[in-house]
Amino acid sequence: MDRVEIQNRIKKVISKVLNINEESIGDNANFIFDLGADSLQSVELVAAFEEEFNIEMEEDKALEVQTVADATEFISQYLK
Amino acid sequence: MSDAFSERMKNIDRIFYPKSIAVLGANNVRGTVPSDILTNILKADFNGVVYPVNPKERHLFSIKTYKYVIDIEDPIDIAVIVYPSSVMHLALEQCGQKGIKGAIIISAGFKEVGGKGIEREEKIKEIARKYGISFIGPNCLGVINTDPEVKLDASFARKTPDEGDIAFISQSGALCTAVLDYARAKHIGFSKFVSIGNKADISEVDLLYYLKDDPKTKVILLYLEEISDGTALLQAARTVIQETGKPILAMKSGRTHAGASAAASHTGSLAGNDEICDAAFKQAGIIRCEDVEEMFNKAIAFTYQPLPKGNRVAIITNAGGPGVLTTDAAIHCGLELPKFNPETTKILKSELPPTANISNPVDVIGDARADRYNAAVSSIMKDENVDGVFVILTPQSMTEIESIAKEICHIASQHTKPIYTSFMGEADVAVGVDILLRNRIPHYILPESMADAFASTYKFTKFLEDVHKPIPEFEDVDVQKARGILDEALKQGKKYLPEEEAVKVLEAYKFPVLKSGLAESAEEAGKLADELGYPAVMKIISEDVVHKFDVGGVVLDIGTRGEAEKAYNTILDNVKKAKPDAKIKGVMVRKMIPPGEEVILGLKRDESFGTVIMFGLGGIFVEVFKDVSFRIAPLDNIAAEKLISETKAAIILGGARGRKPKDINALKETIMRLSQLAVECPQIRELDVNPLIVLDDGKGCFVADTKIML
User: Is the ipTM, as predicted for this complex, more than 0.85?
Assistant: First the structure.
């Protein structure tokens, strides 16, 4: 899976969890500061990423992921 | 005043008096901090414009909401930020880009959580520096300014307090909410209310300087958990108190003694953090309080009533027992119960029943109604022998609680002397207490609290009279000589100054030191004793022996040459047994100082407050009796006097149990010479003069032993 595809799927997940338009999600958008995620939604996002990509992310590290770009990089490492 | 200081004060003023506020991270989930902050601003009827900022919402509570603070078209004075700590840097960066100069950072998750939190706090400090932003917090409850000009409640407190003249600064947000609740029940209002949280930028020191010039604030209350810069705090407190006469009352938690027990000197061991803090507060004029109740008991005494001109109080009561209790409490607090002038006595005699006690404390008798209280209080308030009046009431069946309270309020409004009250009880007297407090008449449940509060106000007025005393400087000292000895010892890597060198340092500062000599043999000891005179004292000189008495290294009262020779051998034997590896330089021989009282002087460096000077009862049991007091150098005459008078040693020196009074003036001079030495020779880490023997009045004092640590 290439990075573009990973990023697109990440945006889809974010759009669903945060209930926002996929087009409005920038490549470097911060989940909290730009997209308005609260702390509960940040946890929900991690769970949704795990389900989407069928991976198990280490919780502490996963919660440090704060932007679409971070998530793309982080998940790409898992899928290698 | 530097530009940076004046810019900072301007930014703090913006925080208290904004015309526009952006609330970054606000939401509409009721019962959460981001929502309550916004609603409190709205509910307090803020006299300005509010701009909520939330990336998802287009409106909050019917107010247009912006995605980013930089999207707001209008200029913004301050930002209140409730975003999580992980994105605080992004929010603050945008505030900087928007040109905002003041911020209140509510969110937690910074230094207080350690690890990444410390990095986050450093990051926001860096951004604030870059853009010249001053901020309160993080990790705080927020800021309240009750001034009708602005009506700002940028906090998540439960209720906005009433307007008042007390400013409260607290490091604990939780204590803030408790204090607000406590104060509301007692009708106590606030001028400014600030939770400073981690005080990563604006600290209590900045706020003291700001509040100094705040016309709405008459008294400043502080709750501190840690003092990062004691010297700056003291300087700010002194400036506030000396320039404006505004009292500062402070609670400082962490009274438990820790960390000082391993110190090498008596001073180091006795001067714990809390003792130093206590001394520093006293010296600066800060009134230290044990708890919230004491703090507010005193705060209302300062703000509700005029300050007393003296310590003479009259007590008016309708019950004997409480009258006696109050008398005891007053005397215990250093107050006096004066005799009334004949005119007052005449009025009391004619207005009160024959069974009444018309001398101080006045008992108007249990069946007194409002007329008797009125007659007693109004006549005594006019008496020139009285500086303040305590009115006690116990609720009997016929006591007109409400009317008496109203009479007291009326009389108080016509005089410039303070009236304090204690309506004893709870349920029945509540109506009267309510009237008193609403009319700014201090009320206390316990007479002890009433007397203590009055004594505080009196002591504060005395403090204000004494503050401008100059620091004396002795010109006969040889600074260069003392510094030379200390520098040389440091160069050689020494941690202790050998006694003979320590004595030289003291001699350079004209401490009263008797002439002595070093003997390297029993024969030499005998010869020296003959030269210097009898009775003589001899003690071991070794860099490896600090506590000479403990190892048998001191022999006193040597009367002959033969005894001196014997003492030399005894000392050497004792030391070799106790400390076989000690390098012995010899034995010091000196004429014994005549009998006198043994006291201790010391100095210690404190990281936060600077140089601490200690005085107390001396000798080998210093740590056992702990009869010591402290002040921060440099000391003026008053500070030196108080340093002595606060100890029990002062009573002994004054001539207890028929002994002759000792030479306090010589002692005071020695203390001030020590203060000058401490300031001019920073090479000294700790110093003990123990004992210093104080002789009878006019005969001086002498250093018997000293230790200097580098």
Answer: yes
